[in-house]
Amino acid sequence: MRDDRIDARKEATRLTEPVEEAAELARKLGLDPYPVNYWIVDHDEMNELIAYGGFQRRYPHWRWGMAYDRQQKQDQFGMGKAFEIVNNDNPSHAFLQESNSLADQKAVITHVEAHADFFANNEWFGLFGDGQGDERAALDAAAMLERHAEIVTGYVEDPEIDRDEVERFIDAVLCLEDTIDQHRAFARADQRRERDAPADLRERLDELGVSEDVRRQAFDEEWLDELAESERAAARLEEPHKDVLAYLREHGQQFDGESGKATEFDPWQKDVLDILRTESYYFAGQKMTKVMNEGWASFWESLMMSDENFAGTDEFVTYADHMARVLGSPGLNPYKLGKELWEYVENVTNRRAVADRLLRVEGITWRNFHDVVDFDEVADLLAPDPAIATVTPETLSDLDPADPRVDADTLERARAGEVDVERYPWKVLTTAGLAERHFSLCKPQNRGFLRRIRRSELERLARYMFDDAKYDTVAEALTDVDYGAGWRRMRELRESHNDVTFIDAFLSEEFVTENDYFTYEFSQATGDFRVASGDPDDVKKKLLLQFTNFGKPTVAVYDGNFDNRNELLLGHQYNGISLDVEQAKRVLERTYDLWGRPVNLMTIVKEYDEHELEIARRRNREPTPTEVGKRIRYDGTRFETHELEPDLEERIAANDIDYDTKPEDWLT
């Protein structure tokens, strides 16, 4: 047996207890994760898994080698360390790097358990499996991706198929891998057939070899024009088709250089397109919930490792450094933003639960709340019961087995010396007990959160109090506080939201102000980046833009028979941010390979007058661009750029639903 495999076995033995205890603690905290299989891997294996998106086998393609090289260089030059990777599957599979310290391994394990809970319960992941519960249990992503790898490998090794042609076809599809309808449940492309674009009758007459004399006698030119227009109208899509890959799967063709015409896809091409589209839908849930998912995992990891002392005394400094590196990564950090948003949701929910009780105390109203409430007294009264807050072998006698906060069976075993309460005090508590033990408003960093509640929120709470419960004193009112409200609300939200809806709903003015968020943009006037705005609305719009459609331009099919010439018309749904036109042209070249006929892309570009731009620079202000609709056409050999018709420009222009966000407005 190789020495490194012996090391892996030793590491697996060392981690058996942390794995079992973390899974139990996660469930005690109210999580409901998929079962997780943990695998010990070395440094190179970890880099391979990261390159493959968390799976051990993928279809052959150069992209994986590029991803592996990038990850290897990132490690080599100290640009970030890979601690773990976990995939969305039932059971989930998590891979731990054997060279990690025990503190790092524990952090990874607690993080993974929270991810597995998110995978199992978030509805956006459920879209791929057509639901959750029993249907969701059938998910076996690892086996699916391995089947895909075998199929594509078979085509690559088939002597009748050019390997380079397979790779080029995959390249073309991958350029459009995010042009799917990620808000709909996954369905086979052939389950959503669209009407085939009709061929112009003139072309059919040419193909049949009808003579010019017969043609003039049998077919009136005006009638042919009217027929072409009616067929063009019939083929036009009433609504943009968002699943571009599905549309190309059903209507796309390949250009045959010998005949000079578009021909049907080969069977292997349809098969590969189906495979890549399926994988795009599978990975869509992860892309749509990156902030929520990483924030969720970081929140519960921090609670388990720090608040529940899952990190031992001798491991805590190492863990603190681990978490600081994760949360301190530069740029838009999904771990930090997500964790802070989940903490905000918890605090807001708990604050409302407390305020709801206080507003029922005689003499306290929403108008005088801040004047008559003694917030220090409230903080002291909210502090968890000492018997719950500090559980030790010596205090077990203080716990009542009949108390709903106490796990009676485990308490009995602990009193008999069968449970290590010194290391795992949470074992004798229920979810309700742990919720009180970790009530967020009692934490030092949140002591002022209740005080910051706005009168408008208090007024809303008072307005919708439908029961008549009243209290004579603050102390009496606070004995009825629901300590589990925050966690329960968090679990509800993790079921239904994605990043866009989550940010839209909970990134408030209070959150932006307290966490010092701001926007920055490239200035046309100064030629560099600068802080653009600290306005909460601007921050929200910018973040929504970053996460809508995975942060990529939204492109849909608008017509499969544009100008009645079987040309594809794509539309960039403009939201104030222009496309990189040169990059868009490269994508059109790839799209042509999947359509076999000319392709068009509608977009809106910003044009600047040089004179106005120079004046703006001198006055240190932003110039005002002119937004112009353009249609870029590619026929397989050359590009043409045309002015976009006003009715088409109107169809792709931004509106409020598109989170219209104009950087030049922020910079003025």
Task: Describe this protein's structure.
- It is a single chain.
- Helices cover 51% and strands 10% of the residues.
- With 668 residues, it is of the alpha+beta class.
- Strands 8-9-10-11-12 form a 5-stranded mixed β-sheet, with helices on both faces. A 3-stranded mixed β-sheet has the order 1-3-2. A two-stranded antiparallel ribbon has the order 4-5.
- The longest helix has 26 residues.
- It is globular and about 100 Å long.
- The termini are far apart.
Short description:
It comes from Haloplanus litoreus. The protein is α+β, with helices and mostly antiparallel strands. Helix 7 (141-157) runs antiparallel to helix 13.
Furnish the topology, listing elements before pairings.
Elements: H1 3-28, E1 36-41, H2 43-51, H3 62-76, E2 84-86, E3 92-97, H4 102-121, H5 123-126, H6 133-136, H7 141-157, H8 163-174, H9 201-208, H10 212-218, H11 221-235, H12 244-251, E4 254-256, E5 261-263, H13 267-288, H14 290-307, H15 316-327, H16 334-358, H17 369-372, H18 375-382, H19 386-389, H20 408-415, H21 431-437, H22 455-463, H23 474-478, H24 485-496, H25 499-506, H26 509-515, E6 519-522, E7 529-533, H27 536-547, E8 555-562, E9 567-572, H28 581-595, E10 599-607, H29 610-619, E11 626-634, E12 639-643, H30 646-652, H31 663-667
